Amino acid sequence: MKQLEKNENVLKVSERSISYCLDFKIKAVKENQKGKGPNQIFLENGFDLDIIGEKKPNQCLKRWRKTYEQFVVKKVFIQSVVEKEVQGVLLQNHYHLMRS
């Protein structure tokens, strides 16, 4: 547990779980999307697979990818809604200026 607590990518460690930093989760997902394997990502970021378990990186990346993809889809949707609202306001202002 002491080794995990020293890792900058870890927020909190208990007997049952490891809480990872958000920045590490995002970085891991992006690296995985580029083709890097989960075990390699964890090893390169200071994790000992003998301590956390060889299956842990795959399990984490599976969860994190799902969350990341949901976030990205929501972000894109919100951006498109905001852009449409801004365009609507601009068109209304343009219409009012043309009528003046």
Automatic annotation (TrEMBL):
Protein name (database record): HTH domain-containing protein
Organism classification: Bacteria, Bacillati, Bacillota, Bacilli, Bacillales
Tree of life domain: Bacteria
